[in-house]
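Feature request, filed as a ticket because there's no other form

It would be nice if the structure record came with a short human-readable summary line next to the tokens. Right now we just get the raw output. Example of a typical job, pasted below so the devs can see what we mean:
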Amino acid sequence: MATSDYLYLISNRKINQISLDYKRPLYREINWDNRLIGIKGPKGVGKSTLLLQHIKETFPDRSAVLYVSLDNLWFSTNNLSDLVEYHYTHGGTHVFLDEVHKYKHWQTAIKNIYDDYPDLHIIYTGSSALEIKTAESDLSRRLRSYDMDGLSFREYLSFENVLDYPAIKLEDILSNHITMASDITARLRILPFFEKYLVAGYYPFYKEEGDGYLSRVQEVISQTIDVDIPAVEDVEYETLQKLKKLMVIIANQVPFIPKMNDFYQEMKTSREQGLKLLNILEDAKMISTLKSPVKALKHISAPDKIYLDNTNMLYALSEDAQIGTVRETFFMNQLSKSGRVSLPEKGDFKVDGKYLFEVGGRKKSYEQIKDEKNSYLALDSIEIGNGNKIPLWLFGFLA
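Raw output as currently delivered:
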């Protein structure tokens, strides 16, 4: 069997095995007619599944399509350009390139393919940390780029096949949360599902992993640091070990409020290198940083608080995940996808520069922010709120 035949065999096998039962909302948002499409996202959120679903549903004639992961050993002794030439001259119209960041000088390679085959469609996926570096190639004006994250709580309920509900805008939650929460809770008991989601529901592979899910999340974290980050950043082995150590440190704080000088000393690094480590992890969707509005204007500045990206990471890395940190991590994760989140002088979070939030349990007092304009409580363990008291779970319906 020719090597290229082997790649087509693998491609068709993966396409045949993929399920079309559930498609992420991004599937319908992508304009698949664009000739160059890039999809970025952290490992494990379903980027490969998205490509394979589109191929299976759209192309009854598989001869025109090739799906290949660029971490395949075939590329250690062969060039992507040769494969594309073979595919194109044998009637190919589309190439789907998974894990593009694993291929050296990937931007130049894709630019050359785009220019040399004017009617060929190129769709690729890559790490969240990918950046289009104009110094290497000029893809930005050709590319239609999309970001993919893990499941929102709303998506999780749909994936569980218990509730299909449209995404809600933040302003609508703030003004009409009682009606919305009443409508949703009339259809199902929401709190048990929310509690399960916080532990194991962000990455779609939770269904196939069962009790091994949190171990798989640990593997995702390790692979992202050991493999994905070195593919897009020039980092040494010692730095990678520091990143892993930092993730565990963050997981065991409530939340992590860094004393930066102590932090640099703990990590045995300089201020410049320490801030670079944080930026690398944030770009890779491993952490989220919270800054005051002034600091938020500066890309290289010390954060005021640091959270893991999602609550499932927190449970995977900490033997004793504190509920206060879990709640704030969830809120930060869901709100940062739909707005700008910063650290206010009072309260926990300020969103879009005007909405102030305190996050806590059902008995959380409104006293601290009661005199602040546009202030709200996001409360855990309640089904339906009242006035400016809003159920925490409802913010999971923003995306």
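Something like this underneath would help us a lot:
The first strand starts at residue 36 and ends at 40.
The chain has a mean pLDDT of 91.
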